[in-house]
Here is the input.
Amino acid sequence: MKLIFKIIRIFAIVYAALFAVFYFDLDGKLLYYVYEPAMCKHYDNIEGRRNIIDIPYEMKDEI
Amino acid sequence: MAEERMVKMSLAEKLGYRKGDLKNFVKYIADDPKQACKDFIYGKEHERRNIGDLYIQPTGLYRHREWRGLKDTLYYFNVIWCYNYGMMVADILSAEKPLRFFQGIWRYRWLGQTYIPVLHWFDRGLEGLRGPALRASAWHYRGMVHATIEQFMRMFARDIRFNGKETELWRKTVLHNETVSGSIFYPFRDGGLVDIPLEMIPYFVTCHVNSNTVLHYIDAIQTLGLPADPCPMCQAEAGVGIMDDYPDSAPCIVTSNEACDASVATSIIQDWFLNRPLYAMPQPMRYDDPLVQKRCQEEIEGAWKFVEEQTGVPFSWESFKKYAELQNEQLYFEREKWDVAARTNNYPINGVAQALYRIYYSQYGWNETWQLLDSRVRKIMENCVANQIDTFPKTRHRVIAWSCAPLYYSNWCTWAYNCWGLNVVINMDSLMFDKDIRTDTYEHALEDLGWYNELAPMRAMAVGGHEHIFKLWDYMEQFNCDMVAMYDQLQCKGMQGIKGMFEDEFRRRGIHAFWLPHALPDKRTVSRKEIRDGISGYMINVMHEEPLDPSLLDFDDDLTW
Here is the structure.
């Protein structure tokens, strides 16, 4: 019985915390202010991409 | 301007804190506790919602998400927000190689920048909705999220960049242009072939979810000297290639002319960087000319032969028949939906969900997810009809949206309903692909598939001849609409050519119509605010109407996703 109450209590706390994240748009704020700028910085600095214009463009065999 | 504003904002402001908010809230409860209690349980009436006050300008984030009343807020939290976050994880875990998600997110900008904030895309599209309209529209969004995850996980499982070599999965895959319908590949599905629309996820869907991502790709292609005036869709699709951001997930590709010469140029660039066998399957401009039908059918047969040769998966009539019949069933339900939308006030799907879901599933081809979600939407819709529920009770005008929509502001119709009571009942893209495929004989099926493919987006009623573009008048009558939202894609030479004729017809027929200028994916050419100002100007100066929610008249969302 004690265990059940404990599970219910944990569930209630998690549910309330998630609701707060949802209601105050905390997921959006985290992604907008922290995640996206950090990832964009990362993408801007990716090395080793192929330089497409170095690939010769030739006629192919007819299919 | 918006960037400067952001720099000046304090952290508290960025998080949505406004001095006096708490005091005002306490005052609101103390002044009329009974009303506050009613608002808590049922939500505020439309005119008292002040949705515009919820935004943190210019980011488009919310100070807090909308309180829609106890029932609808809990529905949104449990069945939309929690459920969709959970199902996104489940979709990834049930993919062929789940861990590839992390490699993908690290490598591909279009994934990492776009698809993580996907729940905000829901928020924007479903703003202000209540009851069955909220539920049915959200199921359409869920379908699109599932199909999107399915596609990018398939790309990553096959990507030579991650695998280091060609794999069996890679060999049994064919890439195709996003406007080549998935239905072309039905004959190979049961043989294990997977078809992937090349640009649908790296380009098309990103524009709707996060409008910032695509700008990087447009700029990339322009730095190589491409002038800014061709269609920005073609620019962006080429830009993804130039940035080497398409996964290498198949041995061959079927391309199309999409709908214009700029797209042909994109196909040439794709041919260049993909550097592998390519089959071009163009659609004729004057598509209903009887003389071109045979040619279209031969091109489809040519594509089938090409796929067989390149992937080793044999053509199967039984496979084609099975999926074509399932697709027909889905089209019959779509027609039922149109019927409800046209004849009643009980249609529970809002303008943006209707448009995006329809274009997405008809382009991608039949999928069991669509079937499952359609059955849920059917239940909601039938309940609305049976109980005569007015799903959009603040409707002042029934609007038909015509031509190609702004991808960065596909949710403009959600705003238009909340602010002005403009209910976008149907749109041009939804009415594409309206063709069932006979499966009694091979010849009939091929003939119908040819027609189906010619009725693709940006084709039939955009550049397919003015008599088709002018079908607007018939559809307006059919859907019982009294107003037209006329999209004006500033960089589409095809549609620009007919603008004056529309103006003349609107005047001659006495139709209320407003123009929505835009540049498809590029929000820098015409901002969302400029689009809203144009509509509001028309509603105030021509229609002499008052806004339902004045807080939505003027706000800055330039830096919104």
About this structure: The mean pLDDT of chain B is 91. The CA atoms of residues 178 and 199 of chain B lie 6 Å apart. Chain B touches chain A through 39 residues (CB under 8 Å). DSSP finds 27 helices and ten strands in chain B.
